[in-house]
C-alpha cells in the first residue's frame, strides 16, 4: 500500500471518528502529495524517497511553527501544530536517537575516508541521503561537524 493509499484510508477513518485535528493533518499531507505528483507532470505517482522528503519537510514546518507560537505565547496555535506533527510522525520512519545517529555517522566518516572539517561536504552528501527521514538535517549536520572536529555533540 502506497503512502497516498494509507492516507486516503486514514482520512476516511478520521472522518468517521470525527477527529478534526487528525483529519486536518491528513488532508494537508495528501495535498502535498498531490502537488508533488502534478509538479512532475506524470500520473504514475511519486517515489517513496520523495514521499519521505515531503513528510520530513512537513514535520519540520510544524516543529518550527510550534516553536514560534510558543515564543509568542500562543499555546492554542502551538497545540494545533503539535497535534499535526504527531500525526505526520506516524508516517515517518523511526527517528534515530543520539547514540545510533553518532554510530551511523562514524561509519559513514570511515567509509568515505574523511579526516577533518574540510571533508564535511563529502560526509554530509552521503549522510543526508542515507539518513533521510531518520534524522533531522540540522542534527545530522551538527553531529558530522562535531565528529569531524573531534568534539562531542
TrEMBL record:
Gene3D superfamilies, per database record: 1.10.10.410, Uncharacterised protein YqeY/AIM41 PF09424, N-terminal domain
InterPro entries for this protein: Asn/Gln_tRNA_amidoTrase-B-like (IPR003789), GatB_Yqey_C_2 (IPR023168), YqeY/Aim41 (IPR019004), YqeY/Aim41_N (IPR042184)
Listed SUPFAM superfamilies: GatB/YqeY motif
Name the record gives this protein: GatB/YqeY domain-containing protein
Taxonomic source organism: Pontibacter rugosus
Amino acid at each position: 500500500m502506497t503512502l497516498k493509499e494509507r492516507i486516503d484510508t486514514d482520512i476516511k477513518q478520521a472522518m468517521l471518528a470525527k477527529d478534526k485535528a487528525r483529519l486536518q493533518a491528513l488532508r494537508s499531507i495528501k495535498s502535498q502529495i498531490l502537488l508533488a505528483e502534478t509538479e512532475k507532470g506524470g500520473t504514475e505517482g511519486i517515489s517513496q524517497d520523495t514521499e519521505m522528503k515531503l513528510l520530513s519537510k512537513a514535520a519540520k514546518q510544524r516543529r518550527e511553527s510550534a516553536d514560534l507560537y510558543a515564543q509568542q505565547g500562543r499555546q492554542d496555535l502551538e497545540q494545533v501544530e503539535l497535534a499535526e506533527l504527531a500525526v505526520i510522525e506516524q508516517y515517518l520512519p523511526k527517528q534515530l536517537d543520539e547514540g545510533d545517529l553518532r554510530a551511523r555517522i562514524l561509519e559513514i566518516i570511515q567509509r568515505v575516508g574523511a579526516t577533518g572539517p574540510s571533508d564535511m561536504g563529502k560526509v554530509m552528501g552521503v549522510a543526508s541521503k542515507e539518513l533521510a527521514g531518520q534524522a533531522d538535517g540540522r542534527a545530522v549536520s551538527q553531529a558530522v561537524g562535531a565528529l569531524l572536529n573531534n568534539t562531542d555533540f
